[in-house]
Amino acid sequence: MTENGDDSDLVVGPDGLARPRWAAVHEDLRSYYDTEWGLPVRDEHGVFERLALEGFQSGLSWATILRRREGFRRAFAGFDVDAVAAYDAADVEALLADTGIIRHRGKIEATIANARATIALRTATGLGARGDLGPGSDLGQLVWSYRPQRTPVPAAAGEVPTTSTESRALAKELKRHGFRFVGPTTMFALMEALGLVDTHLVGSHRRGTSGIWAADGTPAA
C-alpha cells in the first residue's frame, strides 16, 4: 500500500506532494526528483556529466550512481570535458582503484572516449536531427536537436516508455561520432534527465513544471 492508502503508482508523502514510487523511497531520491530530474540542462558541461552518469548507471540502479555522484565528480575533474579527454592509461588504472566510483573498465574508458568525442563535435559539420548544426555547436545542442514534438503522458509506471524514435536516432548519431555506452535506452534516460521529454506521471507534483512541456504533453507556451 502507498502512503495515500491505495495501490497507485504515485505516493503522496508527508509533505502532501505526489511522486512516483522510485522517488519516494529515500530522501536523496526525493530531493533529486524534486529539484533536478527533468529540469532543462543544455550546456555542454552539464550534458556531458549526465551522459557519463547514465553510462555508468547501465545495469545498475540510479540510487547507486546518485550516492556516488560526488565521487564521480572528484574522479573525473568535475566532469571538465577537456581535462577528462586528457586522461591516459595511468589515469584509467588509478580510477579502477577508486572506491568512490563504479570501477568498471569499459565504462571508465567510455567516459574518456566520450570526452574526446565531445571535443571533436565542436568542429564537426552536419550534426543534429536535421543535419543543420555545424562548427561551433556542442554536445548540448546536438542532444537537444532530438527533442520530440510531443512528450509522453503516462498515467501509470507501465506506460512510461524506455526508448523512442528520437532516442534511437540520437544513439545512432552519437555512435557515428565515436561515443560509447549510448544505446537507445540509455539515451532515453538521458533525455528524461535533461528535460527533452517529460515522463512524470499524471498527478505528480512535477508534471508539466519544466517550462519545456505542458502537462498535456504539448510544448509549453
From TrEMBL:
Keywords assigned by UniProt, alphabetized: Glycosidase, Hydrolase
Signal peptide start and end residues: none
Gene3D superfamilies listed in its UniProt record: Hypothetical protein, domain 2
A UniProt-annotated Pfam family: Adenine_glyco
Broad class of enzyme this protein falls into: hydrolase
Keyword Hydrolase annotated: yes
Its EC number(s): 3.2.2.20
Domain of life: Bacteria
GO MF annotation: an example: DNA-3-methyladenine glycosylase activity
The keyword Hydrolase appears for this protein: yes
UniProt-listed InterPro entries: Adenine_glyco (IPR005019), DNA-3mA_glycosylase (IPR052891), DNA_glycosylase (IPR011257)
Listed name of the protein: DNA-3-methyladenine glycosylase I
Source species of the chain: Brachybacterium fresconis
